[in-house]
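Please go through the sequence and fold tokens given here and tell me how the chain folds. Record follows.
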Amino acid sequence: MNPLKRLFLSQKQFLKKIVTILGARPQFIKAAAVSSTLSRYFDEILVHTGQHYDANMSDVFFEELGVSKPKYNLNIGSGNHGEMTAKMLTSIEEVLLIEKPEFVLVYGDTNSTLAGALAASKLLIPVVHIEAGLRSFNKAMPEEQNRVLTDHVSKILFAPTQTAVNHLSKEGITEGVHLVGDVMFDGMLHFSKIAKEKSTICSSLKLEEKSFVLCTIHRAENTDNEERLRAIFEGLRSVDETIVLPLHPRTQKFLLSYGIEPGSNIRIIEPIGYLDMISLQMNAKKIVTDSGGIQKEAFFLSVPCITLRDETEWVETIENGWNVLVGADRMKIIDAISSFVPDQPKIDYFGDGNSTLKIVEVLNTEFAGK
């Protein structure tokens, strides 16, 4: 073994241990920004719940983003929310009993997030929540339930915006709250440069810069509702634009189930890696999505965003005029793709690109000396 590697491994024995729970694409991206710095001060154990189990939706992100392979892969897969969360809770608890970490780190608002937070909380292990304080105020969304419950059992809450801090304060959560900015902005500053150098997807698809609209659809509120999904595709195929759609497995399943024809102007491609997605976003004239993360990424990259939801956690992007909510309204979708143009300069809501350093400084102060 390399002497330097042996020295590093021996030093890790004296580092405080953390367990980080990951399960979905956005969490892999956030971990790519955080873990490289965190690992200098802590012995980080990665746990992949398997919530995104398709290779194109998970493995490729670890490879591209330089995130270490998880020590544990729970292989939970898909299922009903209760079933999935229960399986995760049981398996994560087993991991925590073996590893005995100083704290558990969770990201965002997935079932993996809630399961990790609950498992840690019941074992009296402090929970750290990155991307705390987001609210859509739509309790019908599983993500809203997950993020609210996670915030209320967390010891340290890293908020990406002042709006998020205000939401927590209104719910009586003021201790342990830190406004640090958005770790996805940190990641975008780094990975957009790499995407420019390495991604060839636009040339391989013969897409000219600003000649197409990029679309993503995956949220259950759209895919699991035939009326909404049908109206969305009626809107998409009614515009005189080339629409590039990396097709999520859930969306594909329901398109077939409902018998919905995408339309001749819609170019369906397989799910893609993060660098290729950044490249498509940078080169798109507009982005149509129901993803929270892609709303932000569009904002970071100064690309107009059209959101297929009735509300959003990222209200700053709406207030600043770079994002518009159209829900599943066919005519609103058509009008926004045809005519929506931001009419004001962007405001820097999401930090200065040093969120990761701020997070690690807080954690180092809180846990490293104990």
User: Anything to note?
Assistant: The two ends are 31 Å apart (CA to CA). The mean pLDDT is 91. The first strand starts at residue 16 and ends at 22. DSSP finds 17 helices and 13 strands in the chain.
